[in-house]
Amino acid sequence: MRDFRKYDVWALSHKLVLGVYKITSQFPNSEKFQLTSQMQRAAYSIPSTFCEGCGRDSDKDFNRFVQIALGSAHELEYFFILAKDLSFISDQNQEELSDMVNEIKKKLYNLSKKLKE
Q1: How far is residue 47's CA from residue 52's CA, in Å, rounded to a whole number?
Q2: pLDDT digits over 42-95, tens only?
Q3: Which of 45, 44, 31 is closest to 82 using CA atoms?
Q4: Among residues 2, 111, 104, which one has the least CA distance to residue 63?
Q5: What is each CA distance from 113 to 91, 93, 107, 109, 110, in whole angstroms?
Q6: What is the pLDDT of residue 55?
Q7: How far from the centroid of its chain's Cα atoms is residue 43's Cα?
Q8: What is the CB neighbour count within 10 angstroms for residue 97?
Q9: Which pTM does this prediction carry?
Q10: Distance (Å, whole) CA 75 – CA 62
Q11: CB count in 10 Å sphere of residue 32
Q12: In sequence order, which residues have a C-beta less than 8 Å from that of residue 83 and are 6 or more positions away?
């Protein structure tokens, strides 16, 4: 069993979740059950799925969860673009959040490659 707290990718993805909750709290109320909810779910899916994978016995099983977390990161990256295009977030916020999610994607990808070896 792995301790998820020892992975940089978990800490970074947790920080991203906090940022997403902060930024989506400023979205219009009309988006509460739409984009706000989708962005928050995609964001917390990254570290929570990673944590779930850490409880698996084999590298193969763990890697399956790493891949699912990677998919959520890709989804969230799109939501940042959409939120910017809808003028819910600034260009600067979109860039900062995208940089963070891209760092997470790199870490997940590299971890996945290691687990396949």
Answers
A1: 9
A2: 999 999 999 999 999 999 999 999 999 999 999 999 999 999 999 999 999 999
A3: 31
A4: 111
A5: 32, 30, 10, 6, 5
A6: 95
A7: 4
A8: 24
A9: 0.94
A10: 20
A11: 11
A12: 23, 27, 35, 39, 89, 94
What pLDDT shows up at residue 88? 96
- How far apart CA 62 and CA 18 sit, in angstroms, is 24
Lookup: tokens for 36: 């706000």
Kindly give, in sequence order, each residue whose CB lies less than 8 Å from that of residue 43, ignoring residues fewer than 6 positions away.
16, 17, 20, 21, 72, 76
Q: For the segment 48-59, what is each residue's pLDDT rounded down to a tens digit?
A: 999 999 999 999
Q: Give the total residue count for the chain.
A: 117
CB-CB contact of 101 with 70 (8 Å): no
Q: Does domain 4-116 have CATH number 1.20.1440.60?
A: yes
- List the structure tokens of 39: 């962005």
